[in-house]
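pasting for the record
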Amino acid sequence: MKPINQDRNASLIKITLWFMAFLTSIPFLWLIKDAGRMIFAPVIYYDNGIFFVWLKNTSIFVGSALLISVLTCVTAGFVMAVLNVPFRRFLLFSTLVTMLIPITAMAMPLYVLIDRINLNNTLLGLILASSYFPFGAFLSYLYYSSVLPQELIGMGRIDGLTDFGIYRHLGIPLSKSLISIVTFFSFVGLWNSYQLPRVLLIDPSRSVMSIGIEVFYGQGTTLIGIMMLIPSVLLYLASQKTIARGIFSGAMKG
């Protein structure tokens, strides 16, 4: 039989969680209510169907940059955590420093870099500028440091595995939770990306939804909030178990 205090604490926790869930849902409900008139307006037919151009550009941009960022982050995290590469501490320190720099401060240097290679006002330039994700690389480093012990790596060396073989046969099979976490956070950042598209894309026909819709409906439109919020929520609901498993993998190992 559970103590009375324990039952009371459990009930208090549940009430608190439901109350917080209600509070966090208020802005979302307000967005739906305020954006209703815009959602049912002929948005998709505006300006000869330019909405579909924005949707296509956003899909290409997010899909390509997501693939590059996940691949590079997982690989970089594995290299920094497992392999004895030169300047490993410097690379890790550089990753940490880059995480502290806001994207607004990086926008102008990235613009100059993309302009130097003649990719300004192109989706390819936006993809390359948005693919770097230092938080994902550092997260991958922490993940591999906790789930891939040196004993297992030593056994792989004994079996004749090279560095790439260890990554392929040990690192990748153990990184399903990591890939889900990095994919989620990278997708959220790319889908809601505003600063870089605003700086790098000039032509409205090459714009993405976050910028294109703003051009025609003004700043602060609630339709942008709805369009940007729903995919992130759906992705989290679809992968929340894997994300939770990956987040707590290090603690469970201990």
